[in-house]
Amino acid sequence: MFPGTVEQLVFKPNYFVGNETSRLLLACFGAQAVLTGTIMALARFTPTTFLVFGLVGSIPFFIFNYYFVFVVEMFTHWMLLDFVGNVSIFALCMYGYWKSLQEMRRSHSH
Fold it and tell me: Which of 7, 28, 46, 59 would suit a FRET pair with 18, their CA atoms being 20 to 30 Å apart?
């Protein structure tokens, strides 16, 4: 909703651009996150869906967060909030995977 504010908070000054194009690009990332959240809220997840989404939707972003916060040092530590979100996605997907496997086993045993 506020891509200019996000850009100011997460980019270190030497990487901050602050123009219409940079705000548009950040808004696109935000729109993609809203779309993904909407799909997650409306879709029926199988154990495989939970597992794949948890791994593919988290691990590459852990690497991204680490690299751009600690190696390149492009982002401020505010970007670690993104890391917390990615850990949450991973944990919830692994929990969903476990619970959905249990449910599937229960339904097959009856």
Answer: 59
